[in-house]
Amino acid sequence: MNPRLRHWREAATLLLAAGTPGRPPRTPLGPFDYELLLLRRSSRSGFMPGAHVFPGGLAEPADFSAEWLGLLPASAHCGLGAVKPPPPGGSRAPLFATDRENLGSQLPGEVAFRICALRETFEEAGILLLVPGRGPAPPLPAERLPPAAELEEWRRRVREDASCFLRLCRHLGCAPNIWALHEWSNWLTPVGRAGRGGRRYDTAFYLCCLQERPPHVSQDDQEVTDVLWSSPPEAIERFKSQEIWFPPPQFYEFCRLCNFSSLGELQKFSSARALEGCERWMPVTLSAADGFIQLLPGDELYPEDPDYTGEKKMVMSTDKKVEDLMKEGGIFHRIVIKNINNLAVYVNIQAKYKHINPLMMNCDNSDHNSRL
Questions:
Q1: If pLDDT is split at 50, 70 and 90, which confidence band does 119 have?
Q2: Locate the Nudix hydrolase domain: which residues (predicted)?
Q3: What is the pLDDT of residues 71-81, one digit of tens each?
Q4: Can you give the three-state secondary structure of the chain, one letter per residue?
Q5: Residue 253 region, left (φ>0) first, then alpha (ψ -120 to 50), else beta?
Q6: Each residue of 241-295: pLDDT tens digit?
Q7: What would the pLDDT profile of 175-199 be if each residue is shown by its tens digit?
């Protein structure tokens, strides 16, 4: 974590995909052989109450503890590959580029944020993703996990004290499976979407693919009140029908995951681009006469100097309708918001960092390929 940050806090989240072979198709996109884990936030939460989100949360000092070096490989980046230099004109996202040694941590940010995502997944959903020994190694088999009651006690301890996650790993003679997590994206909460007390987050999104659902999945009944496994198109259908709600970044990522109906394809793609990095995206909201547009970097209307801190009090608004703005435009990277459950993604720019653009899933139940 970075104690010098004033306007937001650092966090990590996990897109956890698990195989579900043989399930019948439920959407026009056909069968998907995997689902993703969604957790419903408590209605008492100070940020996105009641929303379905991927597991994750704030980075804690314990995630950056030098004691982790005793459980992880002594090689550079603890066995993780080095991320390639950014393309011309690009830069490494500040979340990852920050020199952690200057902040008093010997643990690289790429390692600490993965530990954070794994710890939070254990706290919120009871899922423990470990490898025996120091790793990298095949995942720890379910039969080697402690009994459910003991695991639940450890979960309670970790929830109360993040440093207990390291103690749990040491107790089991295991390491957190940081090597299964592939860097996927980086989202910064927009100024206008800050939670209670002005909470904003610079969040690392990681993707992890499992062959099957892990055992012992359950909500903690504190931060999380429900657990849902859903394929990307099913999640979007549930969103459209107002069965569930999730924030625009999750909607965008589900649309991007709709490119992959096979867990194997998703694993192959995420592994192939694992060391390409990503850029930080802070949506900038444009208020229109009949809705909102969240502009993302690369869109023709995205400001050259966005108001990252909120100190400029920048407001973008127009009397035009969303439809007119879409007809006038030509270079899109945006999320159109008509109401809380009526979103659409429009992208026709080239994806950077060897990533892939989302399918443009419209709320009129049609979809279009946006990879132009």
A1: very high
A2: 7-252
A3: 999 988 999 99
A4: CCCCCCCCEEEEEEEEEEECCCCCCCCCCCCCCEEEEEEEECCCCCCCCCCEECCEEECCHHHHCHHHHHCCCCCHHHHCCCCCCCCCCCCCCHHHHCCHHHHCCCCCHHHHHHHHHHHHHHHHHCCCCEEECCCCCCCCCHHHCCCHHHHHHHHHHHHHCCCHHHHHHHHHCEEECHHHCEEEEEEECCHHHCCCCCCCEEEEEEEEEECCCCCCCCCCCCCEEEEEEECHHHHHHHHHCCCCCCCHHHHHHHHHHCCCCCHHHHHHHHHHCCCCCCCEECCEEEEECCEEEEECCCCCCCCCCCCCCCCCCCCEECCCCHHHHHHHCCCCEEEEEEECCEEEEEECCCCCCCCCCCCEECCCCCEECCCC
A5: alpha
A6: 999 999 999 999 999 999 999 999 999 999 999 999 999 999 999 999 999 999 9
A7: 999 999 999 999 999 987 666 667 8
Q: Which residues fall within 8 angstroms of residue 111, CB to CB, at 6 or more apart?
A: 68, 72, 77, 78, 80, 178
| Whole-number Å distance between alpha carbons of 91 and 342 | 33
pLDDT of residue 24 exceeding 60: no
Asked if the model's pLDDT at residue 219 lies above 90, the reply is no
Exposed / middle / buried, residue 349 (Cβ in 10 Å: 0-12, 13-18, 19+):
middle
Residue with tokens 């008492």: 44
- Dump pLDDT digits (tens) for 228-246: 999 999 999 999 999 999 9
d(CA 252, CA 257): 9
Cα dist. 117→44, 182, 205, 269 in Å? 22, 11, 9, 21
pTM of the complete model:
0.93
Residue 343 corresponds to which tokens in the numbers above? 């979103």
The one-letter code for the residue type at 369 is N
